[in-house]
Design goal:
oxygen-dependent coproporphyrinogen oxidase; seven-stranded antiparallel sheet; alpha+beta; about 375 residues; binds 2-acetamido-2-deoxy-beta-D-glucopyranose
Length: about 375
């Protein structure tokens, strides 16, 4: 589907987003200053924080992160739309506000020809953290007072793409910024990552994917890729199966050094590496023929994806236990279809077995 069609489809969402033609100056990777312009006219919906308010505080991290995620959402959805061939199928954009503060823009494509289910979710939320959530953060090493509610702000983008063709891998990414206020002190950190879940192993594809992420990391700190690659392998561990969810990528949390601007620049590079890391794999594989058996294997692997998300995923669990959370958005990462079969075990020497071996023993893709 072309970009023009996308604009037509999405324009009813918000007519007033075209009223603002100003540009925000944010920090680029090379220059502390003004060269990164984000044009809000391409956003899929109005920003959650009114533009007027954002314009008053262009250099605040909250503003910069909200603009980053809105832009990343628009860019990624446009890249996916361009690949979706089912003419009447398009992304459904849902902008919602939360009575307690903030809101989000959920963007979903379901039952496409290329994408069985694709979700690209943005949220900008503020409110107060209950003592139980503060306790969870303390357990992770945050210096916060015990037994009190604390004001917080969170802005993030999260996306999961489940394609139809079993030769096209699933991708997931999430980038978020968090602030917690303790008296007149503000604690802040970033977290996120991008990871790939193939159903059939194409070594070149995995190497391409990891190389794009590594390039984004290496621009900021040479220790990032090895550290965050391992963190990803450790995090996406389906412990009860003894398998990783996929072939990994990068994952990090609680990143608060050396300073907000540097971490923001890193997160910006990561978010910009999603399209070049993944879209070429869809282009390459989406029209490959596949058999019913290959589709069945994909469905079984999707079952594992569900097991991970419901049992281990921090974001999903946090969402499910948050009062007033939007369940549909939290569970949008689940595939449309999945399958469980009693004692299914691929035969030796098959491509299914080849994938399992990789998932049981994560390896380095870039030597
Ligand atoms: C997606 O939306 C839900 C609320 O509907 C929110 O709980 C979740 O944190 C959002 N994900 C991100 C990373 O923004
Ligand atoms: C890279 O990150 C490490 C921590 O992982 C830090 O000790 C080091 O100072 C950083 N290097 C640069 C060049 O920022």
């Amino acid at each position: 589907m072309s970009c023009d069609v996308l604009v037509l489809l999405l324009s009813p969402v918000s007519a007033c987003m075209y009223l603002w033609t100003g540009k925000f100056a944010t920090k680029s990777e090379q220059l502390v200053g003004e060269d990164l312009d984000m044009d809000s006219s391409k956003f899929l919906a109005e920003t959650i924080t009114p533009l007027e308010e954002l314009r008053e505080k262009p250099s605040e991290m909250r503003t910069k992160m909200e603009l980053l995620i809105m832009e990343a959402q628009a860019d990624f959805v446009q890249a996916l739309e361009a690949l979706e061939t089912k003419s009447e199928q398009h992304f459904h954009v849902d902008r919602w506000l939360r009575p307690e503060g903030g809101g989000g823009v959920t963007c979903i494509c379901q039952d496409g020809e290329v994408f069985e289910k694709a979700g690209v979710n943005v949220s900008v939320v503020n409110g107060v953290l209950p003592p139980s959530a503060v306790a969870q953060m303390r357990a992770r090493g945050k210096q916060l007072p015990e037994g009190r509610t604390l004001p917080f702000f969170a802005a993030g983008i999260s996306s999961v793409i489940h394609p139809v063709n079993p030769h096209v891998p699933t991708v997931h990414f999430n980038y978020r910024y968090f602030e917690v206020q303790d008296g007149d002190q503000v604690q802040w950190w970033f977290g996120g990552g991008t990871d790939l879940t193939p159903y059939y192993l194409y070594v070149d594809d995995v190497v391409h994917f990891h190389s794009a992420l590594k390039a984004a990391c290496d621009r900021h700190n040479l220790t990032y890729y090895p550290k965050f690659k391992k963190w990803c392998d450790d995090y996406f561990h389906v412990v009860h199966r003894g398998e990783r969810r996929g072939v990994g990528g990068i994952f990090f949390d609680d990143l608060d050094t050396p300073d907000p601007e540097s971490v923001f620049a890193f997160v910006h590079s990561c978010s910009q590496s999603v399209i070049p890391s993944y879209i070429p794999l869809v282009e390459k594989r989406a029209s490959m023929p596949y058999s019913g058996e290959e589709r069945l294997w994909q469905q079984l692997r999707r079952g594992r994806y569900v097991e991970f998300n419901l049992i281990y995923d921090r974001g999903t669990k946090f969402g499910l236990y948050t009062p007033g959370a939007r369940i549909e958005s939290i569970l949008m990462s689940l595939p449309l279809t999945a399958r469980w079969e009693y004692m299914h075990e691929p035969t030796e020497g098959t491509r299914e077995q080849e994938l399992l071996e990789i998932l049981r023993e994560p390896r380095d893709w870039i030597l």
